[in-house]
Amino acid sequence: MFEPYLAYILFLLIGLVLGLIGGGGSILGVPVLVYLLHYPIDTATGYSLFIVGITSLFGAFSVIKKGEISFESLVQFAIPSLITVFCLRKFLIPVLPNVFFTIGSFEAGKQLVVMCLFSVLILASSYRMIRKSKNNPVGDVMWDEFAKTPMRLPFVITLGILVGFITGFIGAGGGFIIVPVLMFFIRVPLKKAIGTSLCIIALNSLIGFTGNFSNITIEWNFLLSISGICIVGVLVGNAISAKVSSQKLKPAFGWFTLIVGIFVIIKELILS
């Protein structure tokens, strides 16, 4: 009875986190859609793409206005990623079997596979938010040298395809992967990396969502209302971000997402 209201509160939290620390919150969208609102996994990942895309696009307008974006990186990384996510949502997701394999009485269904992969992504994201980053001059020199080699561009394209696969398969933006890639392999400064990442996430998510038009039933009123709630959260987060330390918030939210990731694994592998 209270599940829809809790879902709305959590989507407000997702927008709030995005406004406060620039990312991370959108990774919770799919679990909320699956476990609280009881959408099928294909619909949940598709809806998540739209919500993440609209919310990220809202943030992207701000960084473009400030000039905190690398258009060269956007082209190099986004094009292979966009092609991958669209093809995945349009052609591969609809033909995936409902049951991948069975072992005795155990069935590995589509939801179990997607949500377990999703939990791995959540755990990796939570680890990045919890751990304290340390300066590594030797590592910085190594990535500087790599960025000058002919191998850089093929490697960036490969990573773009990987992010496109993650975005399309589990409906998450993948910002915690995109930002390090832009910084280490293309040598984009942190602020521009975050801004470029927002643009890539918005493009990936919205283009991926268009691949769902013929595959799922779309409830536009619901999607627009949830996206509006997320954007309100972003506005509130932006308004109070100057008064709240993002360095203290990231580990706290990282622990929260860690709990969510563990819950997803338990729910799918033990409680199902």
What is the radius of gyration? Answer: 18 Å
Choose one word for the global shape: globular
pLDDT under 50 segments (min length 5)? none
Compute the number of structural domains. 1
Percent range for β-strand residues: under 5%
* Spatial sequence of strands, sheet with the most strands: 1-2
- What's the helix-strand series? HHHHEEHHHHHHH
Number of helical elements: 11
The number of strands is 2
The CA-CA distance between the termini, in Å, is: 21 Å
Average pLDDT number: 83
What does it look like?
The protein contains eleven helices and two strands. The chain has one domain (43-130, 137-271). It starts with a helix and ends with a helix. The model has no long low-confidence stretch (mean pLDDT 83). The protein has a two-stranded antiparallel ribbon. It is globular and about 55 Å long. The protein has helices spanning 3-21, 29-36, 41-66, 71-92, 110-130, 137-147, 152-170, 175-185, 190-210, 220-240, 246-271, and strands at 99-103, 106-109. Helix content is 75%, strand content 3%. It has 272 residues and is mainly α.
Q: Would you summarize the structure shown here?
A:
This protein is mainly α.
